Amino acid sequence: MWAAQILLALIGLSAGVVVAGGLFSFIIGLGVVSDFADRTHTGEHVLLYEDCVALGGMLGNIFFIYKIAIPHGGFLLPVFGLVAGIFVGCWSMALAEILNVFPIFIRRVKLLRYIPYLIAGMALGKGIGALIFFINRW
Predict the structure, then answer these.
(1) Angle, alpha carbons 72-74-78 (nearest 5°)
(2) Which residues contact 77 (CB under 8 A, 6 or more apart)?
(3) Rounded distance, CA 75 to CA 37, Å?
(4) Whole-angstrom distance, CA of residue 133 vs CA of residue 127
(5) Choosing a second label site near 18 at 20 to 30 A (CA), which of 28, 45, 55, 113?
(6) Distance between CA 63 and CA 71 in Å, rounded?
(7) Which residues cross the membrane (predicted)?
C-alpha cells in the first residue's frame, strides 16, 4: 500500500517537473525574457529574469495547490491581473512573431495602412476580455 503511494507520488512529481521545465523552456526559447531585457537595456540581468520566471511559476503552483491565502489579496488582484495580462500578451506576440503569422497575414490581406489600428484593437480586445472575466469573478 505505502509502496504504491510513494511510487505514484514520484511519478506525479516527475511528470510535473517535466511539464514545468518544458513550459519554462518554451517561454525562454520564444525570447520573451530576453526581449524584455533587450528593450529595457538590462541584458546583464537576463539570468536573474529567467530565475524569477521559474520562481514565479513554482510559487504560483504552491499557492494554488496548498490554497495559501495572500494577505490583502483583493487589493493585489488588479495589480496581478495587469502584470499577468502584459506577460501573456507579450508571450503570445512573441509566439506569433516567431511563427511569422502577422507578416504573412498582413501581406495577403493588404493591411499595411491599418497595422496600428490592428495592434490597438488586439490590445483593447485583450484588455476588455480580461476586465469582463475579472468583473464576472467578483
Answers:
(1) 115
(2) 134
(3) 28
(4) 10
(5) 45
(6) 12
(7) 6-34, 46-69, 75-102, 114-135
Q: In which element (H, E) is residue 13 found?
A: helix 2-30
By CB neighbour count within 10 A (0-12 exposed, 13-18 middle, 19+ buried), where does 90 fall? middle
**By the 8 A CB rule, do 118 and 126 touch?**
no
C-alpha cell recorded at residue 84: 499577468
Given phi > 0 = left and psi -120 to 50 = alpha, else beta, which region is 68?
A: beta
125 vs 138: CA distance, rounded Å: 20
- This prediction's pTM: 0.52
DSSP 52-117: HHHHHHHHHHHHHHTTPPPTTHHHHHHHHHHHHHHHHHHHHHHHHHHHTHHHHHHHHHT-GGGHHH
Residue boundaries of the structural domains of the chain: 1-68, 71-138
> Higher-confidence residue: 115 or 4?
4
